[in-house]
Amino acid sequence: MKPLSNKHLSIEESKTLAINAKANALKESGVKVINFSSGEPDFKTPAFIREAAKGFIDQGHIRYTPSAGIVPLKKAIATKLKQDNNLSYDPANIVVSAGAKHSLYNTFQVLLNPGDEVIIPTPYWTSYPAMVELAGGTPVLLDTTDSAFQISTKKLESLITPKTKAIILNSPNNPTGTVYIQETLEKIAEIAINNDLYVISDEIYEKLLYEGTHVSIAALNEVIKKRTITINGLSKSHAMTGWRVGYLAAETDMVKAITNLQSHSTSNASTITQYAALAALEGDESEVAHMKRAFEARRRMVLAKIERMPHISVNAPSGAFYVMIDVRGLFGKKFEEKTIKNATDVAALFLEKAHVAMVPGIAFGCDDYLRMSYATSEADIKEGLNRIERLIRTLN
Ligand SMILES: Cc1ncc(COP(=O)(O)O)c(C=O)c1O
């Protein structure tokens, strides 16, 4: 039989989902696994949103909608972008999709020609390089590990070639929790304008910010706004991962192209979900604030516990619900005659011997770290990190 397309054969399973599957298999065999690999809030979607959604089904909001989304939702998103981000967009400049992931996928599809380069700060969210490649582009990695996960604008400039088309920004960041400061964003905006680059700004963790302020790069000035595609959604802020709703705001040409693409692929995001998202955005944010406070308390707990452990360290993150644990201090140590060589070995050891799942940094482009998600209970954080501490104190 003839093979599948080269493009698709080169794409691997998402590594973050793979570790989750491994942890779940172990769990199903009866082992008490503590799972720190999850990329989603562990809270229920707020009750007022769930209740509203049930009502919308009964009211008959169950038919196709315009591909780019229902007008009241696009209006509510435009209001949110104005209030939270100081961004003025007409509802016609917004496209609602089946998750921010879908918004990003659509963006790369309409933006890239074969060979176009996209600069991706590394560690990166695991899907960015795959999405760029699926659109025919070439990922160019910008290492941030030696600058406390902040972007070095000098390094950024050194990576720009005539083929560079765009840079991806993700602040607060998955997997590092880093928040880019305004001065860095200003410099990046200047570089993007001077080099004719697009900026894809993924702001999905905007509401989970514990230090500093969130700045949308598109809000810096009208020139950079024209070059920026701002991506956001309700998965992380409103614990709505499974509902699948995200959106982007951009210039008219981009919005037209994405709407056309979406009209021939998925059509509209689920109608029921769009109405639920409308209820979420029109509701008050007390539940969002409540979840943020819980994440904040867990973050403090994680940092305090890791601080007192030997051989591993973290760079205190300012947002999201992840920490990147530097495990280089464990390299060269032995466990049962096996020498630890990289973070993938550490992740395997933690899962096999402590029954604690974390994602090896290789999933994010660097094998010196593990990503720990604290979207889990305080009891699990305590138990899981105690297990890790006991295990690493036995290594020599
Ligand atoms: C950085 C980043 N962007 C986008 C997404 C996609 O979110 P959604 O559920 O809206 O597709 C995620 C989800 O993990 C993420 O971590």
Question: Any key phrases for this structure?
Answer:
single chain, 396 residues, alpha/beta, Aspartate Aminotransferase, domain 1, Aspartate Aminotransferase, domain 2, seven-stranded mixed beta sheet, four-stranded antiparallel beta sheet, 15 strands, globular, binds pyridoxal-5'-phosphate
**Secondary-structure element series:** HHEHHEHEHEHEHEHEEHHHEEEEHEEEH
How many separate domains? 2
Radius of gyration: 21 Å
> Mind telling me the CATH superfamily name of the largest domain?
Type I PLP-dependent aspartate aminotransferase-like (Major domain)
Category from helices, strands and their pairing? alpha/beta
Detailed description of the structure:
The protein has 2 domains: 6-44 and 287-391, Aspartate Aminotransferase, domain 1 (Alpha-Beta Complex), CATH 3.90.1150; 62-282, Type I PLP-dependent aspartate aminotransferase-like (Major domain) (Aspartate Aminotransferase, domain 2), CATH 3.40.640.10. It is 42% helix and 15% strand. The chain contains 14 helices and 15 strands. The strands form 4 sheets. A 7-stranded mixed sheet has the order 2-8-7-6-5-3-4, sandwiched between helices. It has a 4-stranded antiparallel sheet with strand order 9-10-15-14. The longest helix has 22 residues, at 286-307.
Short overview:
With 396 residues, the protein is α/β, with parallel strands linked by helices. It has helices at 6-9, 15-28, 47-58, 71-85, 100-111, 127-134, 153-159, 182-194, 222-227, 252-263, 271-282, 286-307, 343-354, 378-393; strands at residues 34-35, 94-97, 117-122, 138-143, 164-170, 198-202, 228-233, 246-249, 313-314, 322-326, 334-335, 338-339, 356-357, 359-360, 369-373. The protein starts with 5 loop residues before the first helix and ends with a helix.
